[in-house]
Design a protein that fits this description.
Elements (H helix, E strand, L loop, with lengths): L2 E5 L3 H13 L3 E5 L2 H11 L3 E4 L8 H10 L8 E5 L4 H9 L4 E4 L4 H13 L1
Parallel strand pairs: 1-2, 1-3, 3-4, 4-5
Helix pairs in contact: 2-3
InterPro entries: Bact_response_regulator (IPR050595), CheY-like_superfamily (IPR011006), Sig_transdc_resp-reg_receiver (IPR001789)
Pfam families: Response_reg
Keywords: Phosphoprotein
């Protein structure tokens, strides 16, 4: 299946995503903040990135913008996965280049459907 990078500062959330994704055949990489997420994405070239917003240092909006504007990583779809449920956050996420936007907690079926959708183009 796909190689997916999970960028989230919560070990609990990261493990929940890892469990869901690995159970469904995906390979999972992780990063604890936006800066590390950008670095791992540049090095590993995952098929998809799941990006939290509220993180120390480089936040998810900033990291998403860096990835989607960089010729090396702009082909990698970024799905924002956050607790921020305001329409302004959704719009801003899309303006940063995000391919999708999900609100935590995310049901396994919803997450897998969104990943399949962005991977299909």
């Amino acid at each position: 299946m796909a190689r997916i990078l999970v960028v989230d500062d919560s070990p609990t959330e990261t493990e929940a995503f890892r469990s869901m994704l690995e159970k469904n055949g995906h390979e999972v990489m992780t990063a604890e903040n936006g800066a590390d997420g950008v670095a791992v994405a540049r090095q590993e070239k995952p098929d998809c990135v799941l990006m939290d917003i509220v993180m120390p240092g480089l936040n998810g909006f900033q990291a998403t913008r860096q990835l989607t504007k960089d010729p090396e990583t702009q082909h990698i779809p970024v799905i924002i996965v956050t607790t921020k449920d305001q329409e302004t956050d959704r719009v801003w996420g899309k303006r940063q280049g995000a391919s999708g936007y999900l609100v935590k907690p995310v049901a396994e079926g919803t997450l897998l459907s969104e990943i399949n959708s962005v991977l299909a183009g």
